[in-house]
């Protein structure tokens, strides 16, 4: 039994700590093949955007080093994941295949089909909960349906038992055994930009990998969470956790984050702001859970309006030049331009500013939210299928739990409230207030009225 090979199929769980699939493989006692498949060919699986591909290269590099530290190798293959996992099983004679669950429809179909075919051949195939605190099918309304509004979802989740505690790294109690097989060279995947190399700002801002994730969490607990309520909406402040890309790639688990924040809250019970900051941050973590809840129950969230009346909305026909002005931060609206330039330079954008830039595109320019979602998918290092789509539909007003369409973020008012001294704007738009800076591409007041008139046609 101990000589039976186990394949651990890594996906969006690029870590060794609190990795249930790897933990189970270590307990089995035989040789382990750690496999990652770059699947950009399977039907329904959305290829990663450029910024995510950059991050993936760094994350796989870090995972390979982590695995070497516990005596394992990382095997890389590219192509259809269903085909390649079967090939690796046949190549190694593996008796077990373990993985952690995914929640997109196409991914679930792949996993279910593979699990069924492996079991039909007498191979043990198991999947585990690793990337969400609660499985989407375990949080249902009193009528047995899924939650469409966040607040009751949040109440239902927080009423459940405390999330399980994280699992330790394997290999501490007994050495692990690797099974070596042929692997692709990561550099041959060409995940990194070359001509031009637009990733300088990403390299300066981020350190992909589990170590970088835990460093960010530690720094946030030391310096950010106690002031989170007061400072999270101010983009010039370094008050947010910066954990979203690490969570997206599974370099740290939500269980690790949850319990670390809870420990901080209990240890600093007498510190002003600690309890409120921890609660506010954990609420954001549950918003991420809500996104996966909706993705599971309503897979079309990524491409279709959740409120069908928006299928009749009269979107404006904007030119390519106008869209480029928004993408490149040349709209003449300083806070919008600062956000879009931050996104291009660093691969992220402050959450408050994300709402402003999205509202400007969808409501002041009346461009379909899917156009903005696609741009964010390509440029965000934390481009997450569930959260990206939900957040865009929230701003657009097309989701079931959404900002009302008439709630239009005025960029000038937002700047006066949250960037009062212009620090954030000047950081990314140093030419603001000078002749080279463009005039506003639309009048905010008149474009707001036009958006409301357009909305009235579908009410």
From TrEMBL:
Keywords, alphabetical: Chromophore, FAD, Flavoprotein
Gene3D superfamilies found in the cross-reference section: 1.25.40.80, DNA Cyclobutane Dipyrimidine Photolyase, subunit A, domain 3, HUPs
SUPFAM superfamilies on file: Cryptochrome/photolyase FAD-binding domain, Cryptochrome/photolyase, N-terminal domain
A Pfam cross-reference name: DNA_photolyase
Residue ranges of domain Photolyase/cryptochrome alpha/beta in the record: 4-133
Cofactors that this protein relies on: FAD
Record carries keyword Ribosomal protein: no
PANTHER family in the cross-refs: CRYPTOCHROME, CRYPTOCHROME CIRCADIAN CLOCK 5 ISOFORM X1
Similarity comment: Belongs to the DNA photolyase family.
Identification of the protein by name: DNA photolyase family protein
Organism: Herbiconiux daphne
């Amino acid at each position: 039994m101990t000589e039976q090979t186990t394949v651990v199929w890594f996906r969006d769980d690029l870590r060794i700590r609190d990795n249930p699939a790897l933990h189970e493989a270590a307990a089995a006692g035989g040789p382990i093949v750690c496999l990652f498949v770059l699947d950009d060919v399977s039907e329904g699986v959305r290829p990663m955007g450029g910024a995510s591909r950059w991050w993936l290269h760094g994350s796989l590099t870090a995972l390979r080093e982590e695995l070497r530290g516990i005596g394992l190798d990382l095997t890389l293959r590219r192509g259809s994941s269903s085909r390649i996992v079967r090939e690796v099983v046949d190549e190694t004679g593996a008796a077990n295949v373990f993985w952690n669950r995914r929640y997109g429809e196409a991914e679930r179909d792949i996993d279910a089909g593979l699990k069924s075919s492996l079991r039909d051949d007498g191979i043990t195939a198991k999947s585990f909960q690793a990337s969400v605190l609660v499985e989407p099918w375990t949080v249902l309304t009193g009528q047995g349906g899924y939650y469409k509004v966040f607040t009751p979802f949040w109440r239902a989740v927080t009423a459940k038992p405390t999330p399980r505690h994280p699992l330790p790294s394997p290999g501490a109690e007994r050495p692990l055994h690797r099974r070596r097989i042929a692997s692709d060279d990561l550099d041959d995947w060409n995940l990194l930009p070359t001509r031009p190399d637009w990733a300088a700002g990403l390299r300066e801002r981020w350190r992909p990998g589990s170590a970088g994730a835990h460093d960010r969490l530690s720094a946030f607990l030391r310096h950010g969470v106690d002031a989170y309520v007061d400072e999270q909406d101010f983009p010039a402040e370094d008050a947010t956790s910066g954990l979203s890309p690490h969570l997206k790639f599974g370099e740290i688990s939500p269980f690790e984050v949850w319990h670390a924040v809870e420990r901080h809250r209990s240890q600093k019970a007498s510190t002003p702001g600690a309890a409120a900051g921890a609660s506010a941050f954990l609420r954001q973590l549950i918003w991420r859970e809500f996104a996966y809840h909706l993705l599971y129950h309503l897979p079309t969230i990524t491409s279709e309006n959740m409120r069908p009346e928006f299928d009749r909305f009269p979107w404006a026909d904007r030119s390519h030049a106008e869209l480029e002005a928004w993408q490149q931060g040349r709209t003449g609206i300083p806070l919008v331009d600062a956000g879009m330039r931050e996104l291009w330079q660093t691969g992220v954008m402050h959450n408050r500013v994300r709402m402003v830039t999205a509202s400007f595109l969808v409501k002041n320019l009346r461009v379909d939210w899917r156009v903005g979602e696609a741009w964010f998918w390509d440029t965000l290092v934390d481009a997450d299928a569930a959260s990206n789509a939900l957040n865009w539909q929230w701003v657009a007003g097309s989701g079931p739990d959404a900002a009302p369409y008439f709630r239009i973020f005025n960029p000038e008012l937002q700047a006066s409230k949250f960037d009062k001294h212009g620090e954030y704007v000047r950081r990314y738009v140093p030419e603001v207030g000078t002749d080279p800076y463009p005039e506003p591409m639309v009048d905010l007041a008149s474009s707001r009225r036009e958006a409301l008139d357009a909305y009235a046609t579908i009410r």
